[in-house]
Each structure stands twice: as structure tokens, then as C-alpha cells.
Design brief:
The chain is mainly α and about 290 residues long. The chain contains twelve helices and two strands; from the N terminus they run αββααααααααααα. The model has no long low-confidence stretch (mean pLDDT about 90).
């Protein structure tokens, strides 16, 4: 459709651009400005240049936060994506039983993070929790899932996987139902077994869905806050202090607005680069599959 006047496309885009500018770019600009100041919310801001960034680097806080967040995100994205894909393939069948199981798996995604965190605090309790009780009855040692620095981060990752796997499953189910059945019939006539049909038909057709799920899950995992705030408060010994929780602590606990702003800028750039890298890798894989 050709616009009647050259200005019409810009008028259509104006509301979206206004919302983006007001609620995204303007706050981002304020955060960037604050990252060059030392400010405790009580006294006037003091310009310190790049000192906040230098402090984050020299104290080791930035490297530790990046490492913990990356470890958490890698586990959450890879496991939730694999489980979502497996469940979608297994449950993509007609019948009330399959519909019930699909609904049950997805229901965890619509429950609030706080409710999920409280439920899993009871399950993972080291003394009277459901998981610890079961392990003791089986004669296995029970761990302090949320009190041991070696396992606390992965316990939180497990809770996040339990919550968002239903989301991955629904996206993959939608992708599966868009694959023409004639492709499976042609592959079966050529003698392809179930694994070969998955490798040469299902997975190539699901690549766009997988790229979407991977990117959104990555962003979601980087935004983890509620589950950390409720279950561990960043502990023990900061083993679960990921990016967003570290920013929260700097602002509302330590009153260090400048350092929190510097951490926010690094967080934004890091997430932007990681998302671009992930999309580039998916597109490269798709191009190679297309050439093959």
C-alpha cells in the first residue's frame, strides 16, 4: 500500500517512537549521566568521571557478577529450551490427556514469581523440605540447597527452568503445528525413521521458533530478580548476586546510585551484545542448513 503523503508513515510510527523515547531512551540517558556521578540520594551529586566503572573493575565485582549471571543464564536457557522442545514433540498429539498435560506444564508460567519462590523455598528447605525428606528416605544425603554457595545458584536456575519451560513448550508447539504434514509423509516414503525426520524436517523448520525462545529466555534469565530476592537475598556469600539484584542492592541498600547506574550501563551493553551474537549464530546456522 502506497501512502498518500510522505509524512503518513512517520505519523503512524510517532506514537511508538514517543513511548520508546519516553520510557526507554530517556531513562537510559539519565542512567548514563548518573554513572559519571557519586550520589547517595541524600546529598547533591558529585561528578567523578569514570571512577564508578573503575571501581567496579578493580573490586572484582563486575567480573563476579558477570560470571554468576552467565552461569545462571546458560543453565536456564539451554535446559528450558531442550525440555520445552522435548515436551512439545512428545505432547503434540490430539486427545484430552495430552491437552491436560500441556495445560499443566504451561500453568507454572502464569504463576507469579513470588508464589513460585515461596513454593520452592518449602520444597528445598534443608530440614523439613519435600526434596530433602525424599532424599533421606532413599538413603541419600540432603543438601542445603539454598545455604550452600556451591549449589544455591543452580537451585535458583532449577526453579526458573521449572517456571519457564511451559513457555518454551507452547512456542515450539505452535512451530510444530505449522510444519506441513506432507514433508513428514515424503520423508517416510524415502525411508526416514523418527530420528532422521526430526533431524532433517522438524529441527530445520523449528529454527526460527528456537531462535525466538532462546533470545527471549536469555533476556528473561538476565532479568532475574524476584526469585533471588525472595529465596536467597543474593547469598550465601553473594553466590546468587546476579546483575539486577546487584543493581538493586547498590541503589536501595548501599545508596550508591552512581555505581548502580554504571552497572546498569554495563548490563545493557552486555545484554545487547549477547543477544546480537546469539541471533547471528542462529542465522549462520540457518544459512548453512539452507545451503546443505
Amino acid at each position: 500500500m502506497k501512502p498518500r503523503r510522505p509524512v503518513h508513515p512517520f505519523l503512524f510510527l510517532a506514537p511508538t517512537a514517543l513511548v520508546l523515547g519516553l520510557f526507554f531512551f530517556w531513562p537510559l540517558a539519565i542512567v548514563l549521566k548518573n554513572s559519571f556521578y557519586r550520589w547517595d540520594l541524600l546529598t547533591p551529586p558529585e561528578y567523578v568521571g569514570l571512577s564508578n566503572y573503575a571501581l567496579l573493575l578493580s573490586s572484582g565485582e563486575l567480573s563476579g557478577t558477570v560470571l554468576r549471571t552467565l552461569s545462571y543464564s546458560v543453565v536456564v536457557v539451554t535446559v528450558s529450551l531442550a525440555l520445552g522442545l522435548g515436551l512439545a514433540v512428545a505432547l503434540d498429539r490430539p486427545g484430552r490427556l495430552y491437552a491436560f498435560v500441556r495445560g499443566a506444564v504451561f500453568s507454572a508460567y502464569v504463576v507469579s514469581w513470588v508464589a513460585v519462590a515461596l513454593l520452592w523455598m518449602w520444597i528445598l528447605d534443608a530440614d523439613g523440605g519435600l526434596l530433602s525428606t525424599l532424599l533421606r528416605k532413599l538413603g541419600l544425603p540432603a543438601l542445603s540447597w539454598l545455604g550452600d554457595p556451591r549449589v544455591a545458584l543452580f537451585a535458583l536456575a532449577g526453579v526458573s527452568i521449572w517456571k519457564i519451560t511451559g513457555y518454551s513448550m507452547v512456542i515450539f508447539l505452535a512451530g510444530l503445528q505449522d510444519i506441513p504434514r506432507s514433508l513428514y509423509e515424503a520423508a517416510a516414503l524415502d525411508g526416514a525413521g523418527p530420528l532422521q525426520r526430526f533431524r532433517h524436517v522438524t529441527w530445520p523448520m523449528l529454527r526460527p521458533s528456537a531462535a525466538f525462545v532462546g533470545t527471549t529466555s536469555l533476556i528473561l534469565s538476565f532479568q532475574a530478580f524476584d526469585v533471588v530476592r525472595v529465596m536467597t537475598q543474593g547469598g550465601p556469600v553473594k553466590s546468587t548476586t546476579v546483575f539486577v539484584y546487584a543493581i538493586y542492592e547498590h541503589v536501595f541498600v548501599n545508596l550508591r546510585v552512581g555505581r548502580a547506574s554504571a552497572l546498569t550501563v554495563v548490563f545493557f551493553v552486555f545484554l545487547l551484545l549477547l543477544t546480537a551474537l546469539q541471533l547471528w549464530a542462529w542465522r549462520l546456522g540457518t544459512a548453512r542448513t539452507g545451503r546443505a
